[in-house]
Design goal:
Blueprint: E1 8-12, H1 22-38, E2 41-45, H2 51-57, E3 63-64, H3 81-87, E4 91-94, H4 103-115, E5 119-124, H5 127-134, E6 140-143, H6 155-158, H7 160-173, E7 178-182, H8 188-196, E8 201-204, H9 206-209, H10 214-225
Parallel strand pairs: 1-2, 1-8, 3-4, 4-5, 5-6, 6-7, 7-8
Protein name: Triosephosphate isomerase
Function: Involved in the gluconeogenesis. Catalyzes stereospecifically the conversion of dihydroxyacetone phosphate (DHAP) to D-glyceraldehyde-3-phosphate (G3P).
Catalytic activity: D-glyceraldehyde 3-phosphate = dihydroxyacetone phosphate
């Protein structure tokens, strides 16, 4: 199974126009550049249509945004674990708030990813969901209150108690699972705040994808993650 280094920054490209096609590869190469310069682990999650293009063009980890709990076969429109692995992904997001799954399906996706030697990153909306996700033994759990996603209001500042409770609950379940903080992460200070609350990094999307200077923003975030600025 691929090994990610922590603390880490994971960039979700969602389906933004600014991160589609060649633009996705451009943003991914910026992330690769900053990762090389700083030594910080930075991963990207492009759209499925861009997955192979991006994974073939960079050396940093690439995640799929979603997988379905189905085997290869007659499942038109579904995305299999086998397909994202073949495309070059090291793992996949599971149960993002914009692509929710049933608990049984989350469990099946985590199992299929593990069987294929891929990393599972399960998203959860609060501390209770996070602890339930951790019990499924994924590699990473990202806590993201859905009401803060895309708002620019970081959970690490608006609702720090959600993050601290999540860390506490997950650690009662397992010491193995890595914990990320998402939702509203928009600036270097948010990265620092997330780490101080006990997480292993951040998951963000629009702040990077839509930034006027994505390279500058990511460099500052990486610096805060390393405690250099």
């Amino acid at each position: 199974m691929p090994t990610l280094r922590f603390p880490a920054i994971i960039l979700n490209f969602k389906t933004y126009r600014e991160a589609t096609g060649e633009a996705a590869l451009t943003l991914a190469k910026i992330a690769e550049k900053i990762s090389r310069e700083t030594g910080v682990e930075i991963a990207v999650a492009p759209q499925h249509i861009d997955l192979h293009r991006v994974a073939s063009g960079i050396s940093i980890p690439v995640f799929a945004q979603h997988v379905d709990p189905v085997p290869p076969g007659g499942y038109t429109g579904h995305v299999t674990v086998e397909a994202v692995k073949e495309a070059g992904a090291v793992g996949s997001l599971v149960n993002h708030s914009e692509r929710r799954l049933r608990l049984s399906d989350i469990r099946e996706c985590v199992a299929k990813l593990r069987e294929s030697g891929l990393v599972s990153l399960v998203c959860a909306g609060d501390a209770v969901e996070s602890s339930a996700a951790a019990a499924m033994n994924p590699d990473i759990v990202a806590v993201e209150p859905p009401e803060l996603i895309g708002t620019g209001i970081p959970v690490s500042r608006a609702k720090p108690e959600v993050v601290t409770e999540t860390v506490e609950r997950i650690r009662h379940v397992t010491q193995r699972v890595r914990i990320l903080c998402g939702a509203g992460i928009s600036g270097p200070g948010d990265v620092e705040a997330a780490l101080k609350l006990g997480t292993d990094g951040v998951l963000l999307a629009s702040a990077y994808v839509k930034a006027k200077d994505p390279e500058g923003l990511l460099r500052e975030m990486a610096g805060r993650l390393l405690g250099k600025t």
